[in-house]
Amino acid sequence: MIGIYIGSTDAFAGKNIVLMALGLEMQRRGMRVGYMKPVGSIPKRVDDVFGDEDAIVIQELLGLETSPDILTPVIIPDNLRATTLSDETDALAAIQSAYDTISKDKDVMLVGGCGSIQYTGTHRGVDGITLSKQLGLKTLLVDRYRRNRLNYDAILNIKNTLGDDMLGVLFNDVPEDFSRDAEDILIPFLEKNDVDVFGMVPRDPMLNAIKASELAWRLKGKIISGNSQSQRIIQNFLIGTMQVENFMTYFRQSANLATIVGGDRTDLQLVAMEGGCPCLIVTGNITPNEIVRARSEQLGVPVIQVSEDTYTVAKRMELILNSQKLRELVKIKRGAELVDNAFDYNKLCQKLSWKSE
């Protein structure tokens, strides 16, 4: 039996969809697949026990059945007040026991990581590095393109720590204009340093899209006009803080973006809506005037009013879009398809001495 830990250099890298794609592919090849997520961060109560929401979704999609508290023995909520920093229970022992139970009669165990493999869970002694060593797992890293780069320093650091127990890395959310540099420069460099690269999953904006109604809730705002189109999809955003002439030029080049703009900037609000903006987010707890609200109804553009300033809202928007969970079936299927097309399964089989197709 082989155990594979799917970890990442940072949070929200795409571990869940990679794990689902791998699990479904291994099942298709006739393997008995087991799954667990040792550490979770999104508590969900099922009957009388707590588990991790993401882990429960993945288990259902893989057609597996394990009690949520065994599936995810340790829950570390993001909310600091709900986190027991002084908890002295042996988290590592609980995880080992759950792993031993789930892995019986399995050909392969897929173990999902939480947050960063190097840091998340350190205060309980259950960070990803410690877990992979304790459970005797091989590690597959997922590294997501962020801030105009892939995190090759972290990849090399993790490789140095895990040695031969690191299978390699899969790059995720890679924009087309960066893929050539990655193929010509980064991948040869990593492979020269004994880091196998299993592929690059291309960027697909729809995977991080969010509905206007959910965005309003996540931003703790309210839709004040254009409610009939609250299900419109937002893929990214633009900050409207410039002069009208410059804003019009930039906006025409970047259509289909939600626009974050001060509640007192009527000029930019109207320009954005006329330019095809799918959603307007007005900041500073300022209600737009009647002209703006009437036009939003005519054009079917939801207007979300929030209390925070433009900069704060922009930072929250970035986090929200980066952390969008793959809850809708259409997104799950699309994400799995992208991973399947990019992932070199034959290379993985060679690394694990499995028969390839």
UniProtKB/TrEMBL annotation:
Pfam families: AAA_26, DRTGG. Transmembrane segments: none annotated. It comes from the Bacteria. InterPro entries: DRTGG, P-loop_NTPase, Phos_Acetyltrans/Butyryltrans, Ser_kin/Pase_Hpr-like_N_sf. Residues 214-318 form the DRTGG domain. Homohexamer. PANTHER family: PHOSPHATE ACETYLTRANSFERASE. This is DRTGG domain-containing protein. The lineage of its organism: Bacteria, Pseudomonadati, Thermodesulfobacteriota, Desulfovibrionia, Desulfovibrionales.
